[in-house]
Amino acid sequence: MLEETLIKNSLIVSIIISFLVGFFYVKKHWDTDTSILDNLLSSIGIMVFSIVISIFASLIIVCGVIGIYSLFVDHNEVEKHYVYPVSINREKDVEGEFILGSGSVESVNYYYFYYETIYGYKLSKIESNNTYIVETNKRKPQIVEVVKSYNQNSFLKLSDSKEPLRVIIYVPKNTIIKNFSLK
């Protein structure tokens, strides 16, 4: 939304500045003793170089402004409904890659759950790294994503975050089996 507009506008401004830099370079450094082709090639090279540098600089400036501004703008953490699970279980997945006798193996913990669709029950999974479980009888079992929502009355209109800050699974009381054993 706003980020895309700022980036597009900064690219347009940087291209205009690059052509101006190239024009003034040509005007100042045009050598009447050399061929027109040599003068044009050096002018085009300077224009391309100035375009690349100004685009890079403008992107850094825009990203810096958006990053700094997003730190100070008012925002709330908002729960967005994900699904109503019917059942849930935690499992560990093992994934790996091997090529010519070398490779790696990784294990990731997931919460697997079924939820109801119009076609029947569907199996899905979410990583357990940033997932929290809350036992409560005050709400229906559900999975929600907590996202950052920005105040839209501010100077810059930032879009809400797409990646969740965390995932919360609400389950009925006494769902979690507490097991303590020391060996």
Task: Describe what you observe in this structure.
By secondary structure, the protein is an alpha+beta fold. It has 2 domains: 2-72; 78-171, no CATH class. The chain has helices spanning 2-29, 36-72, and strands spanning 75-83, 85-99, 102-117, 120-127, 131-135, 142-150, 166-171. A 4-stranded mixed β-sheet has the order 1-6-7-5, with no helix packed on it. Strands 2-3-4 form a 3-stranded antiparallel β-sheet, with no helix packed on it. Strand 3 and strand 4 (120-127) form a beta hairpin. The longest helix has 37 residues, at 36-72. The chain starts with a helix and ends in a 12-residue tail after the last strand.
